[in-house]
Design brief:
Chain lengths: 356, 356, 356, 356
């Protein structure tokens, strides 16, 4: 009810503020018998953690996940998987300057109004540090769905866009550069832009595209829990996300039906794929692809006018260690959330017809 | 689990295929003591129903909702509100021609693969007729939230867009034209476009913008159930929707933080509102606005190449009574879903802090 | 949230007051491909309905269930099964005498205090008429679980108890008498007792024993959703139930471990079965048996002292058509609820380990 | 879904095996603004922990709970409360002798069959150690419900019963003796019995009675989530519980309606209280009381015949450190679960009618 759980069958419930003792979570509903690759999990953690390169925040957080239950001799037992990630590098004093102010376009004001109390240190629960738990659960979900290929990448930063269809990209190059853009020309331009933005003490937004391949036909539930509706919710629940589109997306809204319809091949695949791999909320076996818009990070390395908790005008100082552009680090988060959505539907799909 | 319920507190569970005896639903969790305005409910039903004007389908469905429980002497009792809407005008024989074929970009193929069985008549459960139940529940949610103003309207059809900010529009004009566009010039152009498209036996997509005003501060739950994540899911669950953005949306992804941040006024309101009335997933009291993309309807009044259930090439004939453009009729559905999302968070908000 | 749904996977949501237009429900999550035996469903309805014999209420309710969706050509489609049962025989005027009074040991007072409003006609939502919806869903669940045998029977009325273990009973005799007691001697005594009680305008309590056989090993979830915890909740949710015990039950609390432990046979079955077929909340393949206590019906055919809604002393008149003993009619309800519990765990069991 | 969460609004999700690194949980939905008394929480932990007295297991577990989130400067923030309790005293080697055997009346066999894998050390997830997490959450729920008095006590051990109504007992004496029985004469007899049983290497069952006082009118949801149905489920989910009854319970099943009905006083209270403080599933303001049956612990300090995982006959040796009678230590667990049930309904009750 309080919004800290995701998934009805393969369920992640997370906890933790950025400057408490630890963050962590419980994964309930992971089937028994899954042999876990812990290195692969840690690799995903590394992809998300701060301080990886010159274009992201220099905060160092080791983000070592410690599993406490649900695994016996490396294999899931069907019981809940509890885990914690200690907050080793928090410097709470860094945040005393924001104790009594509401930073612009942050959650300070709304948390205070909603709860009447706020752990102001590092944004508390509203910090993107929470997404580390999503990456843990997503990494396990990926292992459950070993047949499915999940590839996200940065498709734009500011006004620099990859101008190729995803089919022309080599996803193995995504991790080859600090922007996580598989198109090397665009990657270089994006990197330069971010460096420039950073020098100005500013931030910039961008988009991530995600492609899901080898998804079995039949995932998704009709009506309210359509596959793309859950994907949309999952993505919109990530900090800083402002938009989601799949298949033809907003462009599709300009098209005519005669252009937009995907004609079938005899085997049930389709010649075009403006549907984005989903029809009636259910996967049809074609590639699923979607795009996620991230706003620029609100924390600037500039002074900004704002108010304190009493409504007085004050200056929010630009200090701390923050990302000039969040999208490269959000790539593993997008993949993790996609994996969680798919894992849920994949499990549910085992019970929606008899004689399966 | 099976995706036919929406909302955790104020919950709509719906049932029904387009050509069964009836569709209907149960609204569970509506607080006791709400005096219902049944005429207002029926007005919403009229807005959604087919056959309202020259630019929508000529199917006549009366869509009279019959309440069966949960209401005593016109007032909600706190017990579940059951309702049915009879399918009076279904012509099942109209559909015998699609019994064994998979229509392009419909849910025929995916339902068949998922369930191994399909009520092919009129699309069965995948028919947009299901949205009538959403409108019933949304109409009640609107009455619960009498302070909040919910206004959706058609903001584009094909390549015709309203080129004004929503603040310059007069929402009282939305219902003055058949397109449900409050900008009269754009409305006329859209109407002409739809008529032309219709004559060609084709269809066209469009977008709906929705503005939520007077929303109390504090609605939305952090992390997974952010207010905009639930709005996004709600919208993406509507048939034919391909994208959702709120506040600055996809444009925000091109911006710099110094441009995007909303500076506070002393009263906690903000000078700009690129955040779209939501910060950290929680309403901040400013207007919430979002945009929803609808693809063109897949059913054309043209013959289309497709396959039958055995994979043979066949021609899907263009017949029946269908909308050339679904967006005008989707306006009340967008509003209904927004109302359901808000009602849930509005109720939840009563229990998230002590001494409320 | 509001308590009108049962089951997380195979979910019944019900609605309806005893004197509204209809009661009904939605069964969501029934797998596709189940060929329904409608006669078997109606047979269960007949078992529950009033007016079956001399020892139950003479109210005549036909309780014909009308399915509205989710079934195509007699087979479930995987979409929600909506159904209604019309309230054809309600005589609302019968209840004007209780409009302003709180009947002793009924829910009149608590509903009024909880909701501030109450549909007083026939007890409204608190009427046991609501259980008809459970019987519909249970009848379908039984068909899903065709391998499992579910047999409930009346094991005591007042102080008359069957003094044999269930293994000595022939369940095919349960329906042979109006009390639904498979032990013919006890049945005759119970019937006489009920007739006598009825003549006095009084009512009497009793117990129902239920035996579940052929249950696969592995049903039930550990910790909070233990199989017997869900069975207990299911039974305690039936009107008038005051207690639940399974296996050795309250007697087990007097025993020593050396007496109580069930010794294994080589095949995993156990020599004794004081565990009642469940160990650690999970079925072990042995018979599951439990006992449910029903209080005497609160409505008497006698005048009773009570209060009106203002707190004045008044006399509640004994009139209307009521059961002197509710347990015979509760037998199919107990079976239905057991079937719902089992159906949920049976479906869940398909996803709790890999390579199933 | 997988049964490791309890409560829909104030939700405990727990994890942990008895011999993993730690057990723990997440409490989601605790309202913001509750000032926590950590000493009171630790006191509850002490009541449950092993090694408290001569009549319980001599295992020493410190059971120090460490809160990781959701609390700021001693006050709940509305965000999830994560906590861990380290397993400091586990001796996994103690359990190598049960690695390949199924102990009688334990969950070894059923876990293995259900999941295909089992953490055999100390019973793994099926260990009652899991209940420590319930006590943590229950202790916080108690603080939320500061007005409500929750008193559980041992009402029988083996054949020794308190033969007084609860109204004649002084609950302040419950903690004065090692059996947690407020009737000193009975307590002495029970203690002697347990010592004798222990000397024999045997175990014995018992019952706990729990009384809830000062419960506001209106808690509980009608139909499936009746207050006593949730209490019953909560109790039946505790290890070793075989039965639950409230109010008149199984005795009520022998009574006549004219004896059983509770006559109202003018203020809405009732002269008698066979209803047990609940009518129609909703609290009526009178004392709620219920009784819970616990079977004798299955682990004996005697050798027992059993089978190994291959079905061969083997002897399960009686060793380790176990309770001869679990009921004294279960008293705080019963209270904790009652508190969780009440907290959920207490919160839900804030949203079930308008103008509250």
């Amino acid at each position: 009810m309080a919004g800290n759980s995701f998934g009805k069958v393969f369920t992640l419930t997370s906890f933790g503020e950025s400057h408490g003792a630890a963050i962590g979570g419980i994964i309930d509903g992971c089937p028994a018998g899954l042999k876990l690759d812990f290195e692969a999990i840690q690799t995903e953690m590394q992809r998300r953690k701060p301080g990886q390169s010159a274009i992201v925040t220099q905060r160092k957080e080791e983000d070592d996940v410690k599993f406490l239950s649900g695994i016996f001799e490396g294999v899931t037992t069907g019981t809940p998987i509890g885990f914690v990630i200690e907050n080793t590098n928090q410097k709470s004093n860094d945040y005393s300057h924001i104790k009594n102010i509401y930073r612009p376009s942050h959650a300070d004001y709304t948390y205070d109004k909603k709860y009447g109390i706020r752990d102001y240190r590092g944004g508390g629960r509203s910090s993107a540090r929470e997404t580390a738990c999503r990456v843990v659960a997503g990494a396990i979900a990926k292992q459950l769905l070993s047949e499915i290929k999940i590839n996200a990448f940065v498709s734009s930063v500011g006004n620099i866009f990859i101008d190729k269809p995803y089919q022309d990209l080599d996803f193995t190059k995504t991790e080859s550069n600090s922007v996580r853009c598989p198109d090397m020309d665009s990657a270089a331009k994006m990197e330069n832009l971010i460096k420039k933005i950073r020098k100005d003490g500013d931030t910039v937004g961008g988009t991530i595209t995600c492609v899901l391949q080898n998804v079995p036909v039949g995932l998704g539930e009709p009506v309210f829990d359509k596959l793309h509706a859950e994907l949309g919710k999952a993505m919109l629940s990530i900090n800083a996300v402002k938009g989601f589109e799949y298949g033809s997306g907003f462009c599709g809204a300009k098209m005519k039906g005669s252009e937009h319809n995907d004609v079938f091949n005899p085997d049930g695949s389709t010649k075009s794929n403006l549907s984005g791999g989903i029809q009636g909320g259910i996967s049809n076996g074609m590639d699923i692809y979607f795009r996620v818009a991230f706003k620029p990070v609100a924390t600037l390395m500039q002074n900004q006018e704002t108010i304190d908790t009493k409504g007085n005008k004050v200056i929010a100082e630009g200090k701390g260690r923050h990302d000039p552009c969040v999208v490269p680090r959000a790539v593993p988060i997008v993949e993790a959330m996609a994996a969680l959505v798919l894992a849920n539907f994949w499990l549910l799909n085992k019970i929606n017809k008899l004689n399966d």
